[in-house]
Amino acid sequence: MGTEKDWIDVMAALLTPVIAIVGVVIAGLQWRLGSAKFKYNLFDKRYKVFEATQLYISQIISTAKVDDKQRIEFLRDTKVAFAVYDESVTKYLKLVHDKSLALKVHQAKGEQDKEHSILIWFGKQIENHKEQFEKQLKI
C-alpha cells in the first residue's frame, strides 16, 4: 500500500516538468512555423518586385520606347523594394528607372545614337537583371 502512495507522489512530481517540456516543444514548433511563414511572405514580396522589373524591361525592349503608364506601374510595383531587398537591388532598380527616363529624353530630342546605346543596355538586362535578384530570391 505504501508503494502505491510513493508511485502517485512520483507521478505528481513529474507532471509539472512534463507539462513544461511539452510547452517548450510546442513553442519551438510555433516559432519554426512562424519563421517559415515569414520567409514565404518575404519571398512573395521579393518575387513581385522581380516580376515587375522583368515586365518593365521587356516592355521597353519590345516597344523600344518608355510609356509613362508602364513607368508609373513599375515605380508602384517596386516601391516596397527598399524594405525587402538590400541596397544593391534598390540601386539597380533606380538605375533601370533612370535609364528609362534617359531613353525617353533622348527619343524626344532625336538623339538616335544615345537612344540606341540605352536600348542595347536594356537588351542585356533581360539576362543580367536576374543576377541582381538571384541571391535574395532563394528560400
List the helices and strands and how they pair.
Layout: H1 2-63, H2 68-78, H3 81-84, H4 87-109, H5 112-137
Helix pairs in contact: 1-2, 1-5, 4-5
Short description:
By secondary structure, this protein is mainly alpha-helical. The chain has helices at residues 2-63, 68-78, 81-84, 87-109, 112-137.
Strand content: under 5%
Q: Percent range for helical residues? A: over 70%
Q: What oligomeric state do these chains adopt?
A: single chain
Q: What's the Cα radius of gyration?
A: 28 Å
Number of helices: 5
Number of strands: 0
Question: Which segments are poorly predicted (pLDDT under 50) over 5 or more consecutive residues?
Answer: none
Largest beta sheet, briefly? none
Task: Describe what you observe in this structure.
Helix content is 91%, strand content 0%. The protein has 139 residues and is an all-alpha fold.
Question: What tags apply to this protein structure?
Answer:
139 residues; mainly alpha; 91% helix; rod-shaped
